[in-house]
Specification:
Blueprint lengths: L2 E19 L2 E15 L4 E6 L12 H16 L9 H5 L7 H18 L4 H5 L5 E3 L2 E3 L5 H14 L3 E5 L6 H10 L4 E5 L9 H5 L8 E3 L8 H9 L4 E3 L6 H9 L5 E4 L7 H13 L3 E4 L6 H10 L33 E3 L17 E3 L2
Parallel strand pairs: 5-6, 6-7, 7-8, 8-9, 9-10, 10-11
Antiparallel strand pairs: 1-2, 1-13, 2-3, 4-12
Helix pairs in contact: 1-3, 5-6
The structure holds 2-succinylbenzoate (OSB) and magnesium ion.
2-succinylbenzoate binds next to loops.
Length: about 375
């Protein structure tokens, strides 16, 4: 196939509740839905997930919009594509900027599945089943507030809870939740809010039977995480610094972590994500699917990939009602006995709502 047209709808979505992390608070999220159209008139959808500010990782939405226009689109315009797996190599002259690449690459996967009249699950070779999922909860003003929120999500059926932590809003919060829920799978995410010098505090995490701590140290660090992992029993999971299969190999070989948070956008798309999953499986490395507060477009894709047999734990993949007041797709994903199921419709299986948001032409 050849790509004839690329456009993006620029949404500004309101979160159901503010999402606070060690680096900041979000009440809304801008998200661009890319629509890639083939010469045959078939459309694929992909979501651009970078944030407005470079506080999670360095990539930003405005830079990505620019880069897609000036650098990525010219690399695929006019090319004859026979597989979505070619896109990663076509984009290889551009270094980094994985989320920008992923927006286009995942749209092209959707497009190829649709051209073949298959669901993306079938196209990749995955079987949709009921998936046990988890929820990621932002930092709260006090322990009691967090406990009420955790209780609400446990009652909804979530069996794996991730708590965002930051310096000063950590041990007392974790202790409170662990006391009330002795058997709950609890993990924590520091979003690189600590330093190696906080080792005495980090060692105390071992008292709470946490499934893991995500990215305690630097957002691009591998070495200090490996030193920390030697000193604590709580498994370390890496998120921010995992941009490629090579990063997973590095982390695994120097023992920076015992688990990987895999996010499709953070590794540049589905081709790289699938290779990482194969590597994790071959090397018995714990891996689970992370989230980027996706709208329905990104979440539908995540839910499809969540069927991969390499995943060892429920992901940050929650029902639609946990995220936005209004979504960009006509369907919604709900929780059924703690589980969610991917769409079996063609491609990623979503219909975009009619919208009056700004539309930008890229090709
Ligand atoms: O660190 O995993 C993270 C959301 C945005 C940016 C970074 C992270 C997160 C989450 C939420 O934890 C996961 C989700 O439910 O989408
Ligand atoms: Mg994280």
């Amino acid at each position: 196939i050849q790509i004839q047209n690329i456009e993006a709808y620029e949404h500004d979505l309101e979160l159901v509740t503010p999402f606070k992390t060690s680096y900041g608070e979000l009440t809304r999220k801008k998200t661009d839905i890319f629509v890639v159209t083939s010469t045959g008139g078939i459309q694929g959808y992909g979501e651009l997930l970078s944030f407005e500010t470079p506080d999670y990782i360095e990539e930003t939405l405005s830079n990505d919009r620019h880069l897609i226009k000036t650098d990525l689109v010219p690399l695929i315009a006019g090319q004859v594509l026979y597989s979505p797996r070619q896109v990663r190599d076509l984009f290889s002259p551009v270094k980094g900027n994985q989320m920008a690449k992923s927006a286009i690459e995942t749209a092209i996967w959707d497009l190829f599945a649709k051209v073949n009249e298959l669901s993306l699950s079938e196209y990749i070779g995955l079987i949709n089943e009921e998936i046990t999922v988890g929820v990621s909860l932002g930092i709260q003003k006090d322990e009691e507030t967090l406990l009420n929120i955790v209780t609400d999500y446990v009652n909804q059926g979530y069996s794996r809870i991730k708590l965002k932590i930051s310096k000063g809003k950590d041990l007392s919060y974790i202790k409170k939740i662990r006391e009330v829920y002795p058997d709950l799978t609890i993990m924590v995410d520091a979003n690189s809010g600590y330093h190696l010098s906080d080792i005495d505090l980090l060692k105390q995490l071992d008292n709470y039977r946490l499934a893991m701590i995500e990215q305690p140290l630097g957002a691009s660090d591998f070495y200090e995480h490996s030193l920390l992992q030697k000193e604590i029993n709580t498994p370390i999971c890496l998120d921010e610094n995992i941009r490629s299969l090579n990063d997973v190999k590095l982390a695994h070989s120097i023992r920076s972590c015992q688990s990987i948070n895999l996010k499709i956008p953070r590794v540049g798309g589905l081709t790289e994500a699938l290779e990482i999953l194969e590597y994790a499986k071959d090397n018995q490395l714990s891996i689970w699917l992370g989230g980027m507060l996706e709208s329905g477009v990104g979440r539908s894709l995540n839910l499809i990939l969540a069927n991969h047999s390499a995943f060892t734990l429920p992901g940050d993949l929650s029902a639609s009602d946990r995220y936005y007041v209004e979504d960009v797709i006509t369907q919604s994903f709900s929780l059924n006995n703690g589980k969610m199921k991917a769409s079996n419709e063609v491609g990623i299986g979503v219909c975009l709502k009619e919208t009056r948001v700004k539309k930008k032409k890229y090709l």
